[in-house]
Specification:
alpha/beta; six-stranded parallel beta sheet; five-stranded mixed beta sheet; Mog1; small GTPase binding; guanyl-nucleotide exchange factor activity
């Protein structure tokens, strides 16, 4: 064994490092038993055996960079006796980690942030006090780390109670083109399936796609998915409300296929002076929109402790599902001899007040030779659409597409430069 090999076994540090640190075995024992304050890391220090350790900051720096195997030591093997038949086995390594230096809390470095996963991190703080009756915003309490700080920005803001303090969700922003590219990549397996179905059912594929969008169901479930995605309470209230990118949603529904007809059904609160912005957005994309006004419903709540109850007012949808189901029936009848592909964007399946429900209309379309796709968020997808026995009778002519994997692309929050 040459001198270099022997020195590495006895704990002496090679001279290839920036500073000569001396006998590392003595140093290690001193470091294990010593936890210096941050402000003295640059001072000279002596060990328990009066060995001068030098500038401790250099040692700590080398250990943290991994340049020195500072967490391991090896005790020298006993000197051989007269003519041993075999060399003594080396002593086992004892792994110990260097105690962290104590000092003031600091923000993580960029290298540390790069190593953090892309999951949302909760750093929630106590709510702030109200000032003159006005809620003040808290510090950001949800951060999705990113290695590119130029893309770091606010994604969502929300409240956990009515008129409460605002909290924020921060994360990586993307451009609209990047969102399109990511969406196209995620849709690639589905497009391959579309091509296979086109070879099996060429006539159905050539008759185009009929889209039926239950906007209320899709939009409300979109908000639920965002809360789950960013680990927010399900009863939290977004402020302002996040917007669903209807252009990219339509790309998911069509996937490059020819659109024959597109219908959207939605509802608005009574007394509005103007339609919501998304209604015009739908029309610009080519949808025929059916906008229904919600119906006022008064409910009497009475507790057992009091004979006098309180009246609560709700506004519920009126004939929204029935209107969209009527559009489905019209398409099926008008294209009776040329069935195509129905794309139903809703998770609802139960019967409505004045109709048999979406499940019954889908089943009738399948019996008439249509291919059908149900597109929904997982949280609102009825178990009826998952029924394997019911699905099995239609083979590959019926399928379900869950939107959850596209939630980041569908959130209308993009970089503008």
């Amino acid at each position: 064994m040459d001198e270099d090999e022997e020195s590495s076994q006895t704990g002496s540090v090679s001279s290839t490092y920036p500073a000569s640190l001396g006998d590392f075995s003595s140093l290690r024992e001193s470091l294990i038993s010593f936890q210096p304050q941050h402000n003295i890391l640059t001072n000279e220090w002596q060990g328990d055996d009066n060995v001068k350790l030098g500038n401790l900051s250099k040692i700590v720096s080398q250990l943290r960079k991994g340049g020195i195997s500072g967490s391991s030591s090896r005790e020298p093997s006993p000197r051989p006796q007269s003519k041993p038949t075999s060399p003594a086995p080396p002593a086992p390594r004892r792994e110990q980690s260097l105690p962290p230096a104590r000092g003031p809390n600091r923000l993580p470095s960029e290298n540390v942030l790069n190593g953090i996963s892309s999951q949302t991190i909760s750093t929630e703080e106590p709510p702030t006090k109200r000032v003159n009756g006005t809620p003040t915003a808290t510090r950001p309490n949800h951060v999705a780390p990113t290695s590119d700080f130029s893309r770091f920005g606010q994604i969502l803001s929300y409240q956990t109670e009515m008129n409460g303090s605002l909290a924020f969700v921060f994360g990586t922003l993307q451009t609209i083109q990047e969102a399109r590219n990511a969406l196209s990549k995620k849709l690639s397996p589905r497009k391959k399936r579309d091509a296979a179905l086109k070879r099996i059912y060429p006539d159905v594929a050539s008759n185009g796609v009929h889209i039926f969008l239950d906007m209320s169901n899709i939009d409300i479930s979109f908000h639920k998915c965002l809360r789950t995605r960013h680990q927010l309470p399900q009863d939290s209230r977004f402020n302002p409300m996040p917007r669903l990118n209807l252009t990219l949603l339509t790309e998911i529904l069509l996937r490059g296929r020819q659109a024959d007809r597109m219908f959207a059904s939605c509802s608005i609160l009574p007394g509005r002076s103007a339609e919501p912005r998304f209604v015009q957005d739908l029309r610009n994309l080519g949808y025929s929109t059916d906008v229904r006004t919600r119906k006022r419903v008064e409910e009497l709540e009475q507790t057992s402790a009091s004979a006098i109850g309180t009246t609560t007012v709700r506004y519920v949808e009126d004939l929204v599902d029935e209107t969209l189901q009527t559009r489905m029936a019209e398409s099926a009848m008008s294209c009776f001899q040329n069935p195509g592909t129905m794309v139903l964007a809703t998770g609802d399946a139960k019967p409505a007040q004045y109709s048999d429900g979406f499940l019954a209309y889908v089943e009738r379309a399948l019996q008439m030779g249509w291919n059908v796709e149900v597109v929904s968020w997982r949280s609102s997808l009825s178990t009826s659409w998952r029924d394997t026995r019911w699905k099995g009778q239609w083979g590959d002519r019926f399928s379900v597409i869950e939107l959850d994997e596209f939630v980041d692309e569908l959130l209308d929050c993009y970089m503008t430069h």
